[in-house]
Amino acid sequence: MDDKLSNQSIDRLDISDNTIKTLKDNNIKTIGLLCKKNKSDLRKLEIVQFDIKKIEIELQLLGLGLKN
């Protein structure tokens, strides 16, 4: 993963403010940290499926993805 991208804040992703707050409250503040999570990890944080899909799309636009 490109270090420039992995160190960028999750704030640059076009996802809901509530999702950003949930991620930050769980110390997921950078795109790199987010990419180390899988869908199951995000569901445990009570992020709904719609928002998980939105995260996946945003990461794909950057050429990245969630952990399998």
Walkthrough of the structure:
There is one protein chain. With 68 residues, the protein is an all-alpha fold. The chain contains 5 helices and no strands.
SSE diagram, text form:
Blueprint: H1 3-6, H2 17-25, H3 31-35, H4 39-44, H5 49-61
**How much helix is in the residues?**
40-55%
Along the chain, the helix and strand elements come as: HHHHH
What's the overall average pLDDT, rounded?
96
Number of helices: 5
**Head-to-tail CA distance between termini:** 15 Å
Rg to the nearest angstrom? Answer: 11 Å
How many β strands by DSSP? Answer: 0
Show unreliable segments. Answer: none
Envelope shape: globular
Q: From the helix content, strand content and strand pairing, which structural class follows?
A: mainly alpha
Name the quaternary structure: single chain
- State which percent range the strand residues make up: under 5%
Largest sheet composition: none
